[in-house]
Fold these 4 entries.
Entry 1:
Amino acid sequence: MRRVVVTGLGIASSIGVGAAEFAEALRAGRSGAHPITAFPTEGFEHTNACEVLDYPAAQWIRELDPAELGRATRFAVGCARMALEDAGIAVAAARLLRSIIAVGTTNGESREVEVQVEHQHATGTVAIDPGAARRHRSSRMSVDIARELGCTLTEAVTIPTACAAGNYAIGYGFEAVAAGDADLALCGGADALGRNTFAGFYRLGTIAPELCRPFDRNRKGILTGEGGAILVLETLDAAVARGAHIYAELLGYGLSCDASHPVAPERDSVARCMTRAHAQAGITPDQVDFISAHGTGTKANDLTEVAAIRQVFGAAPPPTVSIKSMLGHAMGAASALAAAACALSLSTGFIPPTINHTEPDPEIDIDCVPNTARTADLRIAQNNALAFGGNNSVLIMGRPR
């Protein structure tokens, strides 16, 4: 197995676009929460979300017409080119490499369907926009990256394992590069804010009135979010040979699917997923310096995830944070954005905070790095992702050696 490293980051988030802006926002504990503009919110008592307001799609999508792409696909395609440029890999050079393009998502381009249904309902027509029929396919999120970059020696896959999909996609690319099946991987996740998802979580009673407060006694639920993150993976040897900046090394990952409940996480399955990730990475729990938790800010998630962490790590787990307190829950992009945050943390030596923290929850009693980022000498970070249907994925990343 070849050693695999992260050399490029393409990021579109509610708190910043690009690696530098995203890292600065994480350090500052910036919140992306604000009133929703993506769709009408009449009838909803709570209307905050974490929307990406300033995403310059045309700056990063140069071969395809951004207007012909759905919003989530624009995040994926733009972040892929952004990541390649951040890695210092010319597009012409990328075309010559055997590659994997893997994008995780929860909703794909369901927003396109929503818009057409709203139009039909408002006008009484059965006609739809032919462009929407082309844009709505989830497969375009990965295929259009290949089209934009002109990559033909590639396998393009879209992975729909809900809110763990970003980690799944990164793990897929990691295995391909480590095994020698590919020399380059562009992988991560993307999702766009939509009324269908917002309404679904609202009906479940899990939308917070204003802010997301993971691990806090006064938590009220999640805020939905959106965005994208694509990571460039290549072998350590290739990165060193071309003098690339290395953010982090991917050490291993674990998967589990318990299928015990449609929406509730299952402690033993989550613990099993973490143990599998540690085994593949060749580490023990005491070597992990911090955990980027799934951390949605719901009681069911917070209590179950922390119970699973204690099952693996014992009574004194490492600092455990949730960047969803800043970004909201970006669905399929969530764990990819968290993976990018882990890579930035390892390369620059800080732990992002869990913001909006007012009162510790005595049922949890963990160090969530409340409200203020912490300077730290980090070696290994763990990135948790838990999804509906019992889909779990855990990434282990290390400081470049």
Entry 2:
Amino acid sequence: MVSGSVNNTEVVAEVDVVVIGAGQAGLSSAYHLRRTGFEPDRDFVVLDHSPGPGGAWQFRWASLTYGKVHGMHALPGMELTGADPERASSEVIAEYFDTYERTFDLRVRRPVDVRAVREGPDGRLLVETSAGTWSTRALINATGTWDRPFWPRYPGQETFRGRQLHTAQYPGPEEFAGKRVVVVGGGASGTQHLLEIARYAAATTWVTRRPPVFREGPFSEDVGRAAVALVEERVRQGLPPKSVVSVTGLPLNDAIRQGLADGVLDRQPMFDRITPDGVEWRDGRRSRHVAADVILWATGFRAAIDHLAPLRLREPGGGIRVDGTRAVADPRIHLVGYGPSASTIGANRAGRAAVRDIRRLLTEEPVAA
């Protein structure tokens, strides 16, 4: 690890690889870097803006217990065993990630906010952060989506006198006791919120842009591969990635069946406008109004990649064109946990693939993009 200055920019260190983010994707990448001979602090560094280990999981609501988590795949090299299914997933996974970081001596630096990644001299990249600037030959971006909740805009939204919040701010169901709640969104979070809130709220209304698709039967490997392939095709074309669940549909489990039978999951089409005291549908001269105290936007997230803007990687379609994990416009940059690798098992595989490509890149002479 070498420090110095580049073009009057004080450089904390020069390394071969900077990993941004210490969630599943970042830790998987760091593990594979370590396993293939890269030394932390000397050859690579992991920067994470969160206050502690756990990635986005540490911010999940307390009622999301570990037993309710679907598809949490172990990090490479260490299984998560013996976890109490009744404990909050935020606690279980934060402890697991903490143990993982210490076991493999990954030396994650936090809290460090990455502000921008820019072109540097001699084919290197400059990673500007709240803790100084790192100079690197390659970059693994593993920033996920949690920091970019998507808030749709609807007419009248600013007039609503009640409370509006996003899944990222969801406090748990008890806070909605006695309230009339409109939940917007047809994904897994929306249905989970509804099933929890309905036990406490005075009334709930579920609205989605498209009718929800419920999936019968087991989620086979073939179905999973087909879904990932569709998401992968979008990022290959430079389009913003969609979630895998938008392709696979929602699993029709016992809780969902009960919610459908009870009328909790009685989906309504998207409203036309928001009023000071609720939401409204209009059909010609007729209108229908539902009173609400709260609008909960379970409308998903977008990739947190604004810090890469100086590199001009975005395509006209709005996304970054990716081949595997490599940014097509710049082979020094890999996006892990982006698009098809956003699932936990996908992030593990993508971390390994990114490190393999980076090792190949670093054996060649560095060339500016």
Entry 3:
Amino acid sequence: MPGRRGHDLVRLRVVLTVFFALDGFVFAGWVVRIPAVKEQTGASASALGLALLGVSAGAVVTMMLTGRLCGRYGSHRVTVVCGVLLSLSVALPPLTHSAPALGAVLLVFGAAYGGINVAFNSAAVDLVAALGRPVMPSFHAAFSLGGMIGAGLGGLVAGSLSPTRHLLGLTVIGLVVTAVAGRVLLRCEVPAPADRDGSGARPPREERAARGTDARTRRLVVVFGLIALCTAYGEGALADWGALHLEEDLGARPGVAAAGYTCFALAMTIGRLTGTRLLERLGLSRTVIAGGTLACAGMLLGALSPAVWAALLGFAVAGLGLANIFPIAVERAGALAGPGGVATASTLGYGGMLLGPPAIGFMADWFSLPAALTSVAVLAAVAAAIGYGTRRVTRAGP
């Protein structure tokens, strides 16, 4: 039985990794075509910011609903359904020719994106509990790797394929991967938490679920959600505005501008691949503090440097710093309160993305885009400060 259980857990880990990678691949493919879609719609920086609000608004609106759907139908089924919706909706943005229309289709895309994030993170939290190791960063490493590949591929085809053909290709790839991986995921049962002491006693998470979510648990979930908010703001800002900063402020060619997100995604991938070992070595609080501090320094370099190479280096440093903070926040919230905790932390986290695009767009119009991007450094520092201020509380967590 232990051998069979181990095989099932490995298979589930592989298929969840595929879905995380697919999510990053599709999202990054859309991100690198934002400049082309901006030109197509004729939107100003502030109008584009409001249109991009649709992604985060759609995600946030559906996240709490997705948490309830996962509780009722299971996170595996919801993951597959949202994978289909995400693949279909990514083809819609290049079909629009105005900022309002773009915002409307991005609302649909955001709803699918938010739904699949809650669903597969909930499934990953269950798997982490079953394995008894902090492997959550490895799943988010797959997301970053998918983003790096999607952004790199997008940069390569930007000069030869129209946004319509490019994103339609992502739809086909997404549907094929979802069909293959989805069949495997639907056959996988939700794993039971590891019984570490062999006593047969219920593990702490089951005990918490049995007695309900108390006030202290809710406060801790909100704390992790605030940390996620600060870091998701940075991820969304670099995804939506990084290429524009390199192209419009620093004069980079479209292919080089697309490389900005590639550098960021590559750095996040490296950071997350080493995240499990880092967490086992440093612990939760120190990882959050160090990551927030590093991201702050990197983003200041990326936003304020006058040279393209230095900005790319800054984006990479920021990616290393932010790499493990969001996975830590979501996993801890899920360990405390199940799918509801994942949904709450994710909603607060993507609230950062909800605020980020329009805030940076307006600040870019009022001041400049480089000045607006320094807000990412400020919130990274806030995440580090929250990690430091709550280090004793989080150390007492699960």
Entry 4:
Amino acid sequence: MTTPESVPAGREPHPPVLRLAWSPAMLGYDFGVGHPMSSDRLDLTVRLARGLGLLDGDDVEVVETDAADDALLERVHERAYVAAVRAASEHGTPDEHRGLGTRDDPVFAGMHEAAATVVGASVDGALAVWRGAAVHAVNVAGGLHHAMPGAAAGFCVYNDAAVAIRALLDDGARRVAYVDVDAHHGDGVQAVFWDDPRVLTVSLHETGHALFPGTGYAREVGGPHAEGTAVNVALPSRTSDAGWLRAFDAVVPAVLREFAPEVLVTQHGADAHQLDPLTSLRVSVDAQRVAAVRLHELAHELAGGRWLALGGGGYAVWDVVPRVWTHLVGVAAHRPVEPTTLLPSDWVDLVRTRYGRDPQHLMTDGHDGAYRPWSAGYDPADDLDRAVRATRAAAFPAMGLDADLD
């Protein structure tokens, strides 16, 4: 694959380093008391980022964006599905055939507006980095990667990542790469672009044998016109930092470099963490910070810095998600937070008051982010290595890469 011959018009003279989408309206995306997808995750993240000074200064722009209109949503979603979401939102009408009113995706008042606001924020960030209005963009409310064109799934109503990527393509981008490090397979984004050679989807997740949505195996490599543009690493349950980072190292840089994206879109679900109640991976805040740093570096190396980073899953509401996503904001703002940084005392007091719990007091879990690189050799007796080797064997040849050497 070739390096881009052209890119959009030049950046503004001094665009902000980070465009962060945020407004209280995003807290409306909440399925109610007792549901894992609590909007407190977003509130606590933005409060923590502010408390650490990451949103101060002229190089960070915090913007309130408009909700996506139906025409924008329908670039990915079926018209009948958008109408069904509106009916659920306005009248409480369930449609279980379309995933609305299920245990995962219960109907709530304002569902359409809340979900469309998330989409609008991701599209705004994508076009800002593409058109040069910002170097990087972050939408921690985004990353709703399970939504399908005609159905809600896995806590996701509209697929903001897919709509943002479609908006980039419609605006002239020729190659967009999507990397998903959520513990769950990024199935909705993969499905939308399954047979589109302009989009590379890479997902690093817990095996579908153990975890929803039950997809994302190495053999899933793309449709007949886009073979090799879907790359899936199905990790063994209980994979920890060293294995998770080794798998990332073995697959992500090589396929991104070969694809040569003009824009990088990433999804940073924090549910791979060892404290997450819904998954069985054992990944620390520190390892997830390392992944954010590497993706940031790859965005600058390959895509002129054009990087849209999204949130996603993550259900350890106060102990994990705010720290992971605040590290992401820091990396994207070119103000990385030292892992040993103390959490602000007023933020800690807020968590104590709101939840009656004492949160972690540092931005680290005390892990060092060390791993054995893939170049050090393959161990056929190791479950993690076998999973990685299966991905490389399935996807690399279709991209023109050598599964053993690249």
